[in-house]
Design a protein that fits this description.
The complex is a heterodimer of chains A (252) and B (260). Chain A is an alpha/beta fold and 252 residues long. Chain A has a domain of 149 residues: P-loop containing nucleotide triphosphate hydrolases (Rossmann fold), CATH 3.40.50. Chain A has ten helices and ten strands. In chain A, the strands form two sheets. Chain A has a six-stranded mixed sheet, with helices on both faces. In chain A, strands 2-1-4-5 form a four-stranded antiparallel sheet. Chain A is globular. By secondary structure, chain B is mainly alpha-helical. Chain B has one domain. Chain B has twelve helices and no strands. Classes of the chains: A alpha/beta (252), B mainly alpha (260).
């Protein structure tokens, strides 16, 4: 579903992301880990087409982000770190607008919006103005916006940041639910970034750890924690090392 | 290109839930009324004087289109200069502060969808302002006999000036995150465009050619001709070039976010 091929992003002399490659299959939920500034957001922005990579490319649901950018973007639901909300709009009209610009056909639009409202627990807030919602509800609107066009791929940048513990749990359940197979079919493929380790343990089955712009670890969660080690220890060890790059070599 | 209407529709609704649009509309209506009354009073005063001095030749030359409607149009073009930046300042700047720029640029939209959608929203607003301006000369048809085509030509000029202002304002808004900066930048650029003929008249450099160039760049020069009833391709071309030029710049500016 997602194929990152040698993605690199340089700003002048500063290397933000260096030669990152990975593949994510249908229905997988991958946790994107790493300290702040490790290049998680930049990598996600390259996948979504917001930033063009300096080198490399990515293929989303069979569409290359350079060769067929509009089709690639159509296949992605994206929750940026800063919620992309218009405070003066009502929840429903906002989702309707997002559905329009995401190419949801006119006839399916109302149904798509209703489904997104329903799934994100916003059915009773549909008429409320976004600016008056609490942080937790705004986060839900952000998620609803990402799924309104029923994309094959979901990219969520720190979906639970700034929420209280109860809201965090709700959002996590929601994400798990989005990725769960329905009618025997895998649904959304999810990449979510976070630096909260329990979040990964709660939601993801696979971990990609980024450090200093490189991919340091790419392994199933079960495998990483098999030796009785906690994710905490692994994270601390990897991010402390200067030569995270050989680990990346080893993991490939 | 099919998303232009979606973007324009959201932008217009956004304008009308904020007090800015209503503020601009009411202020514009009040100022239009005020300027119309002032110009009308000056016109009447003039007639009165000419009658007193029995200057029948000049009295015969007096013309509603030239001495009343034309003056009014010029005043309203200046009012637009103050109010249009208020409408355009948020076009792109607010998308940046809302974080919605990232939504737009990761949606299956082209940059032209975004730029033209926003321009059309501003243009629709200017058409409403144009209708307000047009209402006053329309009154004169009840009490007098202005020339219809001459009147319309000037109104077209006012609307084209407004559209040019929208295009320039959109570009300014695309350059910054701050609506205040966008407003001031637009205002300063428009003011310079307005006073270019005056600068050209000073002829500081003593070069006639450059002076002519400055004069050509000014919106005022071309408005003047349209207000005189001269719908000439040359003047229409000026407005087309200005509007298209700033839209192209806006598109480049929006796109540049990706390359920063």
């Amino acid at each position: 579903m997602i194929e990152a091929r040698h993605l690199s992003k340089r700003y002048g002399d500063v290397v933000a992301v260096q030669d990152v490659s990975f593949e994510v299959g249908r229905g997988e939920v991958v946790g994107f880990l790493g300290p702040n500034g490790a290049g998680k957001t930049t990598t996600m922005r390259m996948l979504t087409g917001f930033l063009p990579p300096t080198d490399g490319t990515a293929v989303i649901a069979g569409h290359d982000i350079f060769a067929d950018p509009l089709a690639a973007r159509r296949a992605i639901g994206y929750l940026p770190e800063i919620l992309p909300l218009y405070p003066e709009m009502s929840v429903r009209s906002y989702l309707d607008y997002v559905a329009r610009i995401k190419d949801v056909p006119r006839r399916a639009r109302r149904e798509s919006v209703d489904r997104a409202l329903e799934r994100c627990g916003l059915a009773h807030e549909a008429r409320r103005v976004i600016g008056t919602l609490s942080k937790g509800y705004r986060q839900r609107v952000g998620l609803a916006q990402a799924i309104v066009h029923d994309p094959a791929v979901l990219i969520l940048d720190e979906p639970t940041v700034g929420l209280d513990p109860l809201q965090v749990r709700e959002i996590r359940n929601l994400i798990r639910d989005l990725a769960a197979p329905r009618d025997g079919q895998p649904q959304h493929t999810v990449i979510l970034s976070t630096h909260i380790l329990p979040e990964v343990e709660a939601i993801c089955r696979r971990v990609i750890l980024m450090n200093e712009g490189r991919k340091a670890i790419d392994a199933p969660l079960a495998e990483l924690t098999a030796g009785g080690r906690s994710l905490d220890e692994i994270f601390a060890r990897e991010t402390a090392r200067d030569v995270a790059s050989d680990v990346a070599e080893g993991a490939r | 290109m099919r998303h232009i209407a979606d973007v324009a529709g959201r932008e217009l609704r956004g304008l009308f839930v904020s007090p800015v649009a209503y503020g601009v509309l009411s202020l514009f209506s009040v100022l239009a009324g005020l300027f119309f009354i002032v110009t009308l009073a000056a016109f009447n005063e003039w007639i009165f004087r000419l009658q007193q001095f029995q200057a029948f030749d000049q009295l015969a030359e007096l013309n509603l289109n030239e001495h009343l409607i034309g003056q009014f149009y010029h005043s309203m073009a200046v009012v637009l200069l103050f109010l249009v930046p208020g409408i355009t300042m948020g076009l792109f700047a607010s998308e940046k502060t809302n974080g919605t720029q990232e939504l737009l640029l990761t949606s299956p939209l082209t940059v032209w969808d975004i730029v033209l959608g926003k321009f059309l929203a501003g243009a629709a607003f200017v058409l409403v302002l144009g209708a307000i301006v047009g209402a006053f000369p329309a009154l004169l048809f009840v009490y007098g006999d202005p020339e219809p085509l001459w009147t319309l030509s000037g109104l077209l000029g006012v609307v084209l000036v407004g559209l040019t202002y929208v295009s320039i304002g959109a570009f300014a808004s695309s350059l910054t995150r701050s609506q205040m900066v966008a407003f001031l930048l637009t205002f300063v650029v428009l003011l310079i465009l307005l006073i270019l003929p005056a600068i050209s008249d000073l002829d500081v450099a003593g070069t006639g050619g450059a002076g002519e160039g400055l004069r050509w760049l000014s919106t005022e020069t071309h408005l003047e001709e349209l207000v005189k009833g001269l719908v000439d391709t040359q003047h229409l071309a000026y407005f087309a070039v200005m509007i298209a030029g700033f839209l192209v710049l806006t598109k480049a500016s929006v796109e540049s976010v990706r390359w920063r």
